[in-house]
Amino acid sequence: MTEKSDTTTPTHDLYAVRMGKLNAMRESGFDPFRANWDQEHTSAQARDLYQEDEENSPIVKVAGRIVVFRLMGKAAFVKILDRDGKLQLYFRRDEIGEDAYKAFRKLDLGDFIGAEGPLFKTKTGEITVRVKSYRLVAKALRPLPEKWHGLSDNEQIYRQRYLDLIVNEESRDRFLKRSKIVSSIRRFLDSRAFLEVETSMLQPEFGGAAAKPFATHFNALDCDFYLRIALELNLKKLLVGGFDRVYEIGRIFRNEGLSRKHSPEFTMLEVYQAYTDYRGIMELVREMIQTICREVLGKTEIELHDGQSIKLGGLWREVPYKELVIEATGDPQWFSRSREEMLARCEEMGIDSNPNQERFEITNDVFEKRIEPNLIQPTFVTHLPRELCPLAKLTEGDESTIDVFELCIGGQEIAPAYSEQNDPLAQREMFAAQAGDEQQNIDNDFILALEHGMPPAGGIGVGIDRLVMILTGATNLRDTILFPTLKPTDGKP
Predict the structure, then answer these.
(1) What pLDDT digit, counting tens, does each position of 250-274 carry?
(2) CATH number of the domain at 163-316+377-480, please?
(3) How far apart are alpha carbons 52 and 30 in whole angstroms?
(4) What are phi and psi of 125, to 5 degrees?
(5) Domain 2-144 has CATH 2.40.50.140
(6) Rounded to whole angstroms, what are the CA distances from 24 to 71, 95, 107, 251?
(7) Which pTM was predicted?
């Protein structure tokens, strides 16, 4: 028995060989690039139809890409890959005919075929199609990477994701789960009377977050526009307009750094609900994530790559931001310390903090570098400093903080949420306090909307890529994005 392999011949030679096969087919009057094939069953559907009484086994008609090819003289086993997974096919010269079998032997790994025949079970117990007829429906002119060693370069994985999906079952499964996670989110919110909307990606003013935007020029209007850095402001305008429960799942663009946990283009879910506050949103997001876990994963406990587990069932921990910072610094008087004292303590703790930063920024360095990475179990970190978000309500009894929470899971922030600021005068004042920050514009159109009246509301933003990262065990954000942003090579992406 021999198994076809393309790993011993240079790729450029294999391309020439396959082009030769294609030319020979066309010279004989056969073009393999069909417009259609009547696929009646997926691999999973075919297996489900199998009956132990093989004499009455149904005929199935399947199609897929050849990923395994084992020749045994007058017979061969092939495995094809379709959207549901792999399915084994059995070819015999006596079954399909001499000419058809001769042509079959010239097929290559990566070719797409359609096949028809009854089901049977091999001696090893694998449900298999006994092929009575087949058709080459698309020729692969370039070889697939060798399964275990041919696609280990991350750069190639990200640039040629289609190859990653073919040969890496873990990656394939992760992206299938991602689609199911997004579908589960929609079902959950739709069932609670939330309205899904779409808002503009191009905006004359960027707002809703503190981030550097991508800028472009709108030729028809002869003015600069920006790719949105958040969904927030337009969605809250819909609360003003009377849509009490809205959400959007959309792309966000931030012209900032790349890292294992950051991408300049990512997917965000934002949800806004009138007549509730951050505590109502706290319950909403917990129930949503637990529902996703049950529907998509069938469990609420996630195993991490380092052996730790995340328990997402039940109630989640809730702890104030100030309490965590005091615990981390070992200083009950931290929030009354001078900037110089804070910087000295950071140096003692081995935390690199910019000496030109404000006190709240130094404190946030402590949180992001020393506290957040250790919040493995789901944790609602509440009442952050008011300077960190100008769009939230101030905390009654402590105007140095705001009514917010950051949901941290697996050592990273998954979702910020807060009681929305609906006082237009307070909102303008908080925007003005950040006027010196070039990355934060004042959106006067948003202020105008608030002046027409916005009901009390709670809102949340959930990073879909980070959520998928946690729920599927990925270690890099790029592993959750089908075609992540990469530096161009040779003038091409």
Answers:
(1) 999 999 878 777 889 999 999 999 9
(2) 3.30.930.10
(3) 38
(4) 90, 15
(5) yes
(6) 22, 25, 13, 46
(7) 0.90
